[in-house]
Amino acid sequence: MSRGDVLAIVLAAACVGLLYAHLWQPAVTATHVELRVGGKPAGRYALADSRDVAVEGRLGTSVLRIEDGRVRFLRSPCRNQVCVHSGWLHRGGDAAACLPNRVSVGLVGGDALDGVAH
Amino acid sequence: MRITPSPEDRLVAGYAALAIVIHVLEAGFPSPIPGVKPGLANVVTLIVLLRHSLRLAIWVALLRVLVGSLLVGSFMAPGFWLSTAGAAASLLLLTLGSLWNRTVPVLRLGAPGLSVLAALAHMGGQFALAYTVFVPHPGLLRLLPPLMTAALAFGLATGFAAAAILRQLPPVAAGRP
């Protein structure tokens, strides 16, 4: 193995390490639920307010329950119920989706910014 | 019409056939995580690059992706496009690597270095396509570090395999491609 190889491998390993540092930050505290239907934004709800939200999807109505800063699919008109079995979501970045009904939920932090560059 | 294959054509065909066999055999093994596989066929690409030329290596890699997908049955399926994006990115990196070797011969990259960089580029290209076209969800980004770790490990493995094979091969006869 040449010196160039050693350099390349060390650099590559460093890049992978940086990826972990950037993309595996500690989960942000989620404050809002973002709803999407067919990929398009369909509403934003504060996790602080407990309530049920009914969403019209392609197959019918999916019901989401927001409670104690968490959210889950309560009912969905799909056959396999993967979304309902996903259970409660509470960390920022968590997401669940009912693909047959085209409804997805994602948890986001307080500000709607993806990042800030100085 | 009659096509007379040049010695170079025969060489590309032979290496590509070898790469395709490895590709198809590897496709038969189940992978624990989608998108992660050892990519042993790249050993052939590396050997062609280091023994012959970048141009022949690009031919062998592209033929392997095309014919491999036809044999496995994934031609034009999402997996084929992912694989093509990955191959394009890794070939771009091998091109840069060859330029590097020409300009900075002191820090020449051999099989292990080229392989690791190409493996990361392959995963990066594949992931970029998956993220921008197939699943544009921020959650997917969390998968990137472990995927890149796998690419790093497999890149090292294929690189050392290629280096070991290159040491066993006789030197290329003068005057041949």
From TrEMBL, chain A:
Gene3D superfamilies documented for this protein: N-utilization substance G protein NusG, insert domain
Domain of life the protein comes from: Bacteria
SUPFAM superfamilies for this protein: N-utilization substance G protein NusG, insert domain
Protein's name according to its UniProt entry: NusG-like protein
TrEMBL record, chain B:
Lineage: superkingdom: Bacteria
InterPro entries, sorted: Hpre_diP_synth_I
Keyword terms, alphabetized: Membrane, Transmembrane, Transmembrane helix
Transmembrane segments: 12-33, 80-100, 112-135, 147-166
Name this protein carries in UniProt: Heptaprenyl diphosphate synthase
Natural source organism: Sinimarinibacterium flocculans
